[in-house]
């Protein structure tokens, strides 16, 4: 009786061996061919084997390898023609994707196998049928020092959902891929329709070939140890999958490169055996996916948005969804502000372009103060550090104050802003340095630029949301931060003071701090030129003025101020708050008082122009 035809699983194992052998190693005497022969016998994929001796013998395996040679353009004319349709199908499916072939072969080997039970032979030479022809057993070859251990696909993919992405960070990770593909325009569109809701991201980048798409969809597509292009914003080869699965259960990617268009689908409801879909799962998905509109580019489609929306309350769903989209626009404007500002990238959310949000350039009228920049070498990498001190909020317009406070609050954005290839990965952090966020440091911003070749030294994690200062640069970073913090405190604390004179020890403040018995008290400076001028003009009535000033100092609402200042979303400001009409009146009245008290006009003007409160007048 003829032995059964080769099954797909057997052909996959044979093709896997084919690519491991050189031209002259494919005959039945090769130990690897013999080993595969024994393995195929042991797999137990067939219900009945009439001849266990000739079944998948080394020679029959060798013939099958020869069939594959007939398909191989690199070995044209050397194989045996006449192979079956299934042989050709397996060849076409795997010959350009050997990594996937290895995974499939490992999966087949890892499964439970069935071994044929030996049959008794009767006295007349005929075989008796066993009561249980095959017994389910595990192959346990103790002669092999190694064995494969393959993860369960459902368990792995469900675990990837727990990486802690928000919508903001997930979309930003996908935009990283688009920038790496040299996209200049990214469009984020969405549809809110209950279970059919979707979010779609399309770019006009280079697109992908079929092999590149398969690689991109593979879990852990690129090792973090691999040397990347200087423009590559990726890290572990997980971003597309982990970011997407954090928000949805079905990920569809459609890509176009020249005239070729390819689609692949991960569906968490159908991930058995690591099987990728090759076309949209239904007509609704196909409609949502649409076509790549540019000559090349990629579409990422999220569906079954179980982590993004809650199905049930339509009104609440819409409110929450649109609130998240508004927050997304602000987040993307911050993370990619340098790309947007330089004109190399435009991002649309819906029909609206995302506006850049530069955390160091916050005022239309008052630039941030740049402290000394530093450049260090770390191995082959270059680290650039630029500290800034923001202008005091008393100088800012109301819309500028709101802009600063719009994401996490004024205080939360103090500290280091870490950029990797000009993409902001961490903002408002002191990393692992021994500094805490404090109210009087809220004006300090330190821009740090690193390349993607420094990931290991900076301990960049999968989400690009954690980093540590390298030990080799820790001392230098500490000093830069200390200097920036001191300058930031000075600007924050002295908004009502004279600016520093040429002699740095010669300063005059409206308020003075006194330390007594372990306590600090704030009093108004009675040596201030304006204070003295008023007392001189009042003459004998000056006593009442002095008493009133003491009352002001003694009733300073310290508790309320502390409460307001520790609230990161509260900006404490004065009544005047930069109103130039009021400031001009104050300036003229004070000038008049000083000259009337005996000061020359020139001397009075010098005193006034040293007072920070009048700096905005540019007089």
Summarize the structure.
A hairpin with a 2-residue loop joins strand 5 (250-257) and strand 6 (260-267). The chain has four domains: 8-137, no CATH class; 155-353, Histidine kinase-like ATPase, C-terminal domain (Heat Shock Protein 90), CATH 3.30.565; 369-493, Ribosomal Protein S5, domain 2; 511-617, no CATH class. The strands form four sheets. The chain has a seven-stranded mixed beta sheet, sandwiched between helices. Strands 10, 11, 12, 13, 14 and 15 form a six-stranded mixed beta sheet that branches.
Helix and strand layout, with pairings?
Layout (H helix, E strand, L loop, with lengths): L7 H11 L12 H13 L14 H14 L13 H10 L3 H13 L2 E4 L17 E4 L15 H7 L7 H14 L4 E7 L6 E6 L6 H8 L21 H7 L4 E8 L2 E8 L15 H7 L7 E7 L10 H22 L1 H5 L4 E4 L2 E2 L15 E2 L3 E5 L2 E9 L8 H7 L10 E6 L2 E7 L14 E7 L4 H4 L15 H20 L17 E6 L2 E6 L4 H10 L3 H13 L3 H9 L13 H17 L4 H9 L10
Parallel strand pairs: 3-8, 13-15
Antiparallel strand pairs: 1-2, 3-4, 4-7, 5-6, 5-7, 8-9, 10-12, 11-12, 12-15, 13-14, 16-17
């Amino acid at each position: 009786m003829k032995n059964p035809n080769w099954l797909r699983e057997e052909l996959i194992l044979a093709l896997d061996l084919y690519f491991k052998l050189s031209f002259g190693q494919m005959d039945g005497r090769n130990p690897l061919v013999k080993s595969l022969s024994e393995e195929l016998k042991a797999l137990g994929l067939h219900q009945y084997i009439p001849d266990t001796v000739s079944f998948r013998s080394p020679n029959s395996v060798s013939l099958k390898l020869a069939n594959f040679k007939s398909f191989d353009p690199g070995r044209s004319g050397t194989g045996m023609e006449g192979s079956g349709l299934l042989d050709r199908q397996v060849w076409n499916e795997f010959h350009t994707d050997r990594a996937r072939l290895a995974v499939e072969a490992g999966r087949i080997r890892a499964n439970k196998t069935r071994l044929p039970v030996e049959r008794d032979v009767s006295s007349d030479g005929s075989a008796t049928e066993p009561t249980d022809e095959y017994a389910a057993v595990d192959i346990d070859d103790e002669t092999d020092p190694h064995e494969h251990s393959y993860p369960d696909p459902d368990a792995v993919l469900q675990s990837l959902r727990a990486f802690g992405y928000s919508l903001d960070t997930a979309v930003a990770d996908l935009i990283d891929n688009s920038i790496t593909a040299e996209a200049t325009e990214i469009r984020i569109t969405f549809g809110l329709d209950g279970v059919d809701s979707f979010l779609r991201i399309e770019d006009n980048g280079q697109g992908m070939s079929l092999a590149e798409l398969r690689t991109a969809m593979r879990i852990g597509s690129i090792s973090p140890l691999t040397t990347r292009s200087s423009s590559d914003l990726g890290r572990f080869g997980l971003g597309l999958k982990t970011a997407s699965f954090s928000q949805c259960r079905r990920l569809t990617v459609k890509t176009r490169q020249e005239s070729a268009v390819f689609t692949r689908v991960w569906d968490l409801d159908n991930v058995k055996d690591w099987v990728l879909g090759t076309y949209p799962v239904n007509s609704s998905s196909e409609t949502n996916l649409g076509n790549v509109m540019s000559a090349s580019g990629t579409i990422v489609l999220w569906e079954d948005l179980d982590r993004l929306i809650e199905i049930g309350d339509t009104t609440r769903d819409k409110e929450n969804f649109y609130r998240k989209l508004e927050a997304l626009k602000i987040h993307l404007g911050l993370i990619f502000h340098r790309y947007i500002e330089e004109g190399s990238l435009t991002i649309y959310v819906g029909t609206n372009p995302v506006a850049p949000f530069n955390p160091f350039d916050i005022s239309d009228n008052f630039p941030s103060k740049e402290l000394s920049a530093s450049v260090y070498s770390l191995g082959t990498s270059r680290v650039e550090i630029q500290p800034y001190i923001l202008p005091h909020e008393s100088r800012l317009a109301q819309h500028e104050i709101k802009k600063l406070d719009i994401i996490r609050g004024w205080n939360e954005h103090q500290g280091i802003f870490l950029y990797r290839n000009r993409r902001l990965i961490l903002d408002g952090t002191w990393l692992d340095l021994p500094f805490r966020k404090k109210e009087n440091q809220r004006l300090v911003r330190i821009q740090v630029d690193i390349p993607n070749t420094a990931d290991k030294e900076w301990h960049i994690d999968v989400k690009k949301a954690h980093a540590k200062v390298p030990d080799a640069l820790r001392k230098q970073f500490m000093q830069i931060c200390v200097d920036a913090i001191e300058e930031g405190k000075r600007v924050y604390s002295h908004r009502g003071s004279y600016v520093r004179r040429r002699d740095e020890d010669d300063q005059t403040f409206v308020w003075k701090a006194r330390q007594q018995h372990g306590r600090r008290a704030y009093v108004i400076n009675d040596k201030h030129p304006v204070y003295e001028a008023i007392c001189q003009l009042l003459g004998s009535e000056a006593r009442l003025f002095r008493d009133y000033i003491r009352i002001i100092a003694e009733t300073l609402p310290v508790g309320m101020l502390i409460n307001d200042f520790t609230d990161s979303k509260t900006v404490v400001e004065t009544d005047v708050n930069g109103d130039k009409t009021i400031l001009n009146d104050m300036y003229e009245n004070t000038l008049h008082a000083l000259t009337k008290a005996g000061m020359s006009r020139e001397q009075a003007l010098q005193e006034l122009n040293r007072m920070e409160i009048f700096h905005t007048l540019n007089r």
